[in-house]
Design a protein that fits this description.
With 318 residues, the chain is of the alpha/beta class. Strands 1-2-4-3-5-6-7-8 form an eight-stranded mixed beta sheet, with helices on both faces. The chain is globular. The protein starts with a helix and ends in a 6-residue tail after the last helix.
Amino acid sequence: MPLNEAYGEPERFNPFEAPPPKTVSPEAQRALRAFTNAASPLTLEAHRALCAEVQRDLGGALLARHGVTMEEGEIAGVPVRTFTPAELVDDAVLLNLHGGAFTVDAGSVTENAPIAGLTGRRVVAARYRLAPEHAYPDAVDDAEAVYRALIAETPPERVVLYGTSAGACLCVQLLARLVRQGAPLPRALGFFSGTADLTQAGDSEQYFRPPEDPRTASRLFATYLQGADRGSPEVSAILGPLGAFPPTLCIAGTRDFMLSQTGRFHRALLAAGVEARLEVFEAMPHAHWIFLDIREAQAAFASMSRFFRQQLDGGGGG
């Protein structure tokens, strides 16, 4: 008799029911108990409205906390939000591509107010066109337009590029395009909880991706790609030459469904001879800095800002 008939089907372990470890802060333990990582039941319109509310309310609290002012504007025809710290260190500028699964704005304020305050530099968040109304390469086109406008006024070695989740993916798609064009590259890259390979899912996605999300690689990112060639190095940058990429900081968490892809990209950069660091936060879920008032979120922003300052100040990423 087969074992499964004798003993029944084994129960599948649900990682979202795992108790929070005591190796993280008490506030992180409370957040993990409440966290389900479930896909949003909202319609896209309602999800966008909720994200706008979060950016307004929580983003406003962060602006006040870090003494940062925000200005709505446009660069090269692309809507942007520009963040200026109370004390500006120099003329360097950081360009952010926000997260939100390519379909919502989940971070154009919350990802950037702390960075502007902690680095003392101006931050520009490009509010690129979103899927499904706009498919690849529209968002990359917008990012390139803003980047080229910035380096027309600021030397590229005084510009840093960074993004979270979908924004991290867009960052490397932009860099792959710039490398192919032979264009000047930014001083450094922040690649946070992202992927550079849209041809296949990573191991951690089997365990931590929301259960309602599509599991097969062929369906992942379909709303954004809409028929684009996943195997193109400008779509999946990990498949192309990486040797010219700037020094890079990669960040993920051990409960992050993008941990595998973040780690794979880090190893690919090292194999290409690029200066790259990987920081993995204990027990943290995808883009855990969205939990603004846990100690680990503040530590992540501190790590990002420290790396950016080191690169801009000429001290490297060590």
